[in-house]
Design brief:
The chain has a single domain (19-350), classed as Alpha/Beta hydrolase fold, catalytic domain (Rossmann fold, 3-Layer(aba) Sandwich), CATH 3.40.50.1820. 27% of the residues lie in helices and 23% in strands. It has helices at residues 19-38, 113-118, 157-172, 190-201, 231-237, 260-265, 285-295, 297-300, 338-350; strands spanning 47-58, 63-73, 78-88, 94-101, 122-127, 178-188, 207-211, 271-277, 318-320, 325-330. Strands 1-2-3-5-4-6-7-8-10-9 form a 10-stranded mixed β-sheet, with helices on both faces. Strand 6 (178-188), helix 4 and strand 7 form a beta-alpha-beta unit. Helix 3 (157-172) packs across helix 4 (190-201). The longest helix is centred in the first third of the chain and has 20 residues, at 19-38. It starts with 18 loop residues before the first helix and ends with a helix.
Length: 352
Amino acid sequence: MNFFPALMKMNDGRDAVTAQDMRERREEMLEILKENAYGDMPAPVPVKGTVLEEIPKCAAGKAMLYNIEIACDFGDKSFTFPLKLFMPHGEGKRKLITVINFTANPYDKYIPSEEIIDNGFALAYIYYEDITADNGDFGDKLAAFYPRTGSGREPAKISMWAWSVSRALDYLTTRDDVDADNLAVMGHSRLGKTALWCAANDERVKFACSNDSGCMGAAYHRTLHEGGEPLSSITQVFPFWFCGNLQKYRDDTSALPFDQHFLLACIAPRYVLINSASLNDWADPYSEQLTCLGASPAWHAYGKDGYKGGESEYGADEGSLYGEVAYFKRYGVHFLGRQDWQNLMFVIKHNT
């Protein structure tokens, strides 16, 4: 795979060998991804969380549901968004999974909230269009705070959605019932890309999980398989997800100064789970698997195993859930289902 941008070669030509080298290399890779893929990540701002409502008998009476307002202080103005928090009844700090999702209803088809609670987890829920619309309107909600400058690397919509997860964590980590040492972020499809980008930037996230994230998520560009989504398509249909500079590469992925192993490697030495689906060719499951393999040297520099699975393509309901880089391809289509959640809960429990 020597036609890939070198993951472990630093900008000054040195090889990244040690953990300190890898910390420096991570900063270099983040800069490459901001400049050429997702745009700058907006800077943190002061955050205040206010509980607006407590519903004590949710998820078959097993949890409290808190309706919370997150207020982000921009000086003379503020930006607010709703956050839903399911907290199992009982004493002690709970491991937390934060999911960013496609509907305002936390009892969504993608979210088996009762099963998550039965496994002892707290669940925080963000509706992505409460942050900014999934379109090219950059005057909408949070986007209005970041006017376009024409630099080519302004914050794109994925960066804004990822930013909101980190601002929610600013509040959630202050709560006495949240285990701030065991934070996970989950997303599906475009929001799987968002979860990975959030974790790449926010080192408080111990576990990152993308589900069917595909092109510009967990799937390599340079190993695109038949039926997989090409960069030329995603940048034409959804240009607002990414910074303007990405358009330079839409018809020539060989010229990209990165591939998606850079994104995963920025999460090292923490944990990442890549979930795929056997009937979801558009997300290119085998390329997602290969990206796990290609990113693993970043973990090796920290003395970690990284990906412990194989290089040969997995079949349906196969994968490797051990090591810091886990991969699993369940049977089925483009969907966030029970197996995907069970995989994440297994990885968290096995590594805490």
